[in-house]
Specification:
alpha+beta; 15-stranded mixed beta sheet; three-stranded antiparallel beta sheet; 12 helices
Length: 561
């Protein structure tokens, strides 16, 4: 593989004068983390998370101290000419993602017979060329798996000798679309078989990692509420089957440009979440679950909802966001024409696109243009990104709302940095804690010409009660917004210090915030979420005017709870 180079913002050989304001801002964050230069390239500053020393009288080891982190920006859901319903070449996508500041990206082509027979291998040759031509980017090859009985998932592995073979073997043996195992629902006789096959698939992937066939592999559920067919019990079954690889879900889908006013139609919804309950949908979801809220999936956007019900079991399940790039809003390219006798099934690749100079239909943004997933790492590289995702060191934003976010939770009696997103802090009942939230505000206008301004930061707290009895539970009744900090007008880098107290039971905290333009009572009521994201009117969902950030949780384990 071509020698990897640091991104320009992280490369000491690149003059600050050659960086844009966001690059300068990100370099400053890297310096403050003590990871600039060789420390970031070689991992010299990487240290494992350790607990604070405990005295003999203290009982179980308390506290915790995670390493300093740099955050790499990425997108795990991108389609190219190797997907039957997409349009763009690798070169177009890699160029655009570099323009919008992505450090890592995953090409996730739809599974189908043309892809399995021809496309995946051809794509791999392009992946290798793309890595050589774009040495400052981390480019993964992945697959958008049709989950038996459910929706889609991103599956991707670390670069290596077997990365494409893993995907094609997996696709042929376990893809719901290829096998005809895609159906589910109360009236379908094959639902139990299909759901079991999804679990079997994840266990097979886990085995390939465990046996060293590939260095690493991860899976993330895509647009879980778009059709309402990912039931709570299925999501829990996937997580439990292989928790080291099935690490989370899209908290916000792609297709964020679908409801730009006057663009796609009067019934359009952000994310293309325009469906109604069907015979395949899980019957326990309300009709409102099929909408997006501030561009975010209902499962994530609802405080006390499905995501929180999984976190309340005390187990990490991450959220992400991405472009799902197929067809970019206002883009002028169209699919090329097929030569006689050729189609996707017998080639595995679309003809290269042709520029028409006239805007074409589309719902998506370029990778990194609007949706960004930030992953905390201690060094730069493929495995570091995957390790950060697995650890849950993740926050996400829309519209380039923030340049940086660092979260640390610590006991007031400890001297260390504390634990960060995805981490666990062990404390005693009644201990005083401080949540330190360091925000770096946006340093440049986004591609819409807007300089984003963060208006508020919400602290969401939920009790941890352990595994649920009813695996289809989608509510966490003890999760709510417990603090809101008005940060309107604040610029640069600042730290919010939020006091917390450990009660008698374990809990978690997570963060959320927005530009303050559109909000109202959350789905489960104002007493739970007084100013949460809300749905937009059909056809009137300007994404740039309603931007949010979300973070993963930090868990607090109370000794004796």
């Amino acid at each position: 593989m071509t020698e990897q180079q640091l991104p320009t913002w992280a490369d000491p050989s690149v003059s600050p004068a050659d960086l844009d304001p966001q690059g300068v801002s990100r370099r400053g964050l890297l310096r403050r983390a003590g990871l600039f230069g060789a420390a970031f390239a070689l991992g010299g500053a990487a240290v494992p998370a350790v607990a604070a020393p405990a005295s003999a009288a203290a009982g179980p080891r308390l506290g915790g101290d995670d390493p300093r982190l740099a955050y790499l920006v990425g997108d795990h859901h991108i389609h190219s000419v190797y997907s039957h319903d997409a349009k763009y070449t690798f070169s177009q996508l890699a160029t655009a993602s570099a323009k919008y500041g992505l450090d890592w990206m995953v090409f996730t082509e739809h599974s189908n017979f043309g892809h399995a027979r021809y496309g995946a291998a051809l794509e791999h040759e392009e992946i290798l060329r793309a890595r050589a031509e774009n040495p400052r980017q981390l480019i993964f090859q992945g697959l958008e798996w049709y989950i038996p009985a459910a929706e889609h998932c991103t599956v991707f592995s670390a670069p290596g000798a077997h990365e494409v073979d893993l995907l094609t073997r997996f696709e042929s043996a376990y893809d719901g679309k290829l096998l005809g195992y895609d159906k589910g629902g109360a009236a379908d006789a094959d639902t139990a078989r299909n759901e079991a096959h999804a679990v079997k698939a994840l266990k097979w992937l886990s085995e390939q990692r465990r046996e060293g066939y590939v260095d690493d592999v991860l899976v993330l559920a895509n647009h879980p509420m778009r059709l309402g067919i990912d039931s709570p019990h299925e999501m829990r079954a996937w997580r439990d089957a292989a928790p080291e690889i099935m690490v989370g879900m899209e908290g916000a889908p792609g297709a964020q440009g679908a409801a730009i006013p006057g663009w796609r139609g009067a019934t359009s919804i952000r994310g293309e979440y325009e469906n109604k309950p069907s015979a395949q949908s899980w019957a326990g979801y309300p009709a409102d679950a099929f909408l997006t809220y501030g561009g975010f999936d209902w499962a994530t956007a609802t405080v006390g909802g499905l995501w929180d019900s999984m976190l309340a079991e005390g187990r990490l399940f991450s959220v992400t966001t991405n472009s799902d790039a197929h067809r970019i809003v206002f883009d002028t390219w169209k699919n090329g024409d097929w030569p006689a006798g050729q189609n996707f099934d017998n080639t595995g690749k679309l003809p290269d696109p042709v520029d028409t100079t006239t805007p074409q239909p589309g719902s998506d943004f370029w990778p990194g243009q609007f949706s960004r997933t930030h992953v905390g790492v201690t060094r730069y590289g493929y495995r570091a990104v995957m390790a950060g995702l697995r650890a849950g060191r993740v926050w996400l934003d829309h519209g380039h709302l923030l340049d940086g976010l660092d979260v640390r939770l610590k006991r007031d009696c400890d001297q260390g940095r504390g634990v960060t997103l995805g981490g666990r802090l062990r404390v005693r009942k009644g201990e005083k804690l401080t949540l330190n939230v360091t925000v770096t505000t946006a340093s440049r206008p986004n591609s819409q010409g807007i300089l984003p301004e963060l208006a508020h930061v919400d602290v969401i707290r939920g009790a941890v009660r352990g595994p649920v009895t009813d695996r289809d539970t989608w509510q966490a009744p003890d999760t709510k917004v417990v603090r809101t900090k008005d940060v309107s007008g604040r610029k640069g880098t600042y730290t919010l210090r939020i006091p917390l107290t450990a009660g008698s039971e374990s809990f978690y905290v997570r963060l959320r915030g927005s530009d303050g333009n559109r909000h109202g009572a959350g789905y489960l009521g104002a007493s739970v979420d007084p100013h949460g994201p809300i749905p937009h009117a059909p056809g009137d969902g300007d994404p740039w005017a309603d931007t949010w950030f979300y973070s993963n949780p930090v868990f607090v384990d109370v000794a004796g709870a």
